[in-house]
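User: Reviewer 2 asked us to show a designed sequence for the structure in our supplementary figure. I'm pasting the C-alpha cells here. Could you produce the per-position amino acids so we can include them in the response letter?
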C-alpha cells in the first residue's frame, strides 16, 4: 500500500518546527538578557586590577570577577537595584552575585556591602567565615554617604583650624603693634623730659617739667 504524502501537511509540519525553534531561541535570548552585570567606579579614575588586568571607571563587572585595589585607590561596584560593594585600598576580593544574593570573598584588606530590600549580602573571609552582617540598606546609599560625611567633617575641621590660626595671627599682630606704639610714646616722653631738664640752670628760676 502506497502512503500518499500531501504537500500541505508537510508544509504545516515545517512551519510548526520553525515556530518552535524561534520561540526557544527567543526565550533563551530573553533569559540571557537578564544576566546581572555591575559597573566599576574607582577613586579619581585610578586603575585597579580586575581578573589580573587594569580596569577603570565604567568597566563592566560580571559575577565571579576578582578585584584588587592599590594603596591609593578605593573601588565601588554598582549592581543596579541590587547592591553596592565598596572595596578598601590594598584589598583583594572576589564577587559572586545575582539578583537575589551578593557574596564578597575577601582574601586581603576589607570590603563593605549595602543591599536593596530582599537581597542577601555577605562579606566572607577567605575561609568562608562571615566578616560583617548584611546591612539591609538601600543599594548605593550608605557607603557613598559615609565617605561623603567623612570628607565634609575633615574639610570642616580644617576650615575651623584655619580660622582659629588666622585669628591668632591677627591678635598677635595687633598686640605687637600696640606694644610698639606704647614704646614709641614712652620714648618720646623720656626725650621731652631730658630736654626739659637740660634747659634748667641754677641761676634761673626752677622750671617744672610737665612732660609726663
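Assistant: Here is a per-position design you can include in the supplement:
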Amino acid at each position: 500500500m502506497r502512503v500518499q504524502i500531501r504537500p500541505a501537511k508537510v508544509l504545516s509540519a515545517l512551519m510548526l518546527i520553525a515556530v518552535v525553534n524561534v520561540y526557544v531561541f527567543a526565550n533563551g535570548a530573553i533569559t540571557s538578557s537578564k544576566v546581572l552585570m555591575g559597573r566599576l567606579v574607582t577613586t579619581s579614575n585610578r586603575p585597579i586590577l580586575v581578573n589580573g588586568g587594569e580596569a577603570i571607571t565604567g568597566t563592566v563587572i560580571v559575577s565571579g570577577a576578582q578585584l584588587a585595589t592599590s594603596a591609593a585607590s578605593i573601588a565601588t561596584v554598582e549592581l543596579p537595584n541590587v547592591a553596592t560593594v565598596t572595596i578598601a585600598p590594598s584589598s583583594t576580593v572576589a564577587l559572586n552575585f545575582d539578583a537575589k544574593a551578593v557574596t564578597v570573598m575577601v582574601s586581603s584588606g576589607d570590603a563593605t556591602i549595602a543591599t536593596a530590600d530582599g537581597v542577601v549580602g555577605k562579606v566572607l573571609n577567605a575561609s568562608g567565615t562571615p566578616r560583617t552582617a548584611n546591612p539591609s540598606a538601600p543599594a548605593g546609599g550608605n557607603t557613598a554617604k559615609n565617605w561623603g560625611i567623612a570628607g565634609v567633617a575633615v574639610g570642616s575641621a580644617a576650615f575651623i583650624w584655619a580660622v582659629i590660626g588666622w585669628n591668632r595671627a591677627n591678635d598677635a599682630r595687633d598686640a605687637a603693634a600696640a606694644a610698639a606704639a606704647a614704646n614709641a610714646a614712652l620714648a618720646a616722653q623720656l626725650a621731652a623730659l631730658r630736654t626739659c631738664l637740660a634747659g634748667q640752670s641754677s641761676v634761673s628760676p626752677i622750671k617744672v617739667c610737665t612732660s609726663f
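For the response letter, you might also mention the following. The longest helix spans residues 142-198. The two ends are 150 Å apart (CA to CA).
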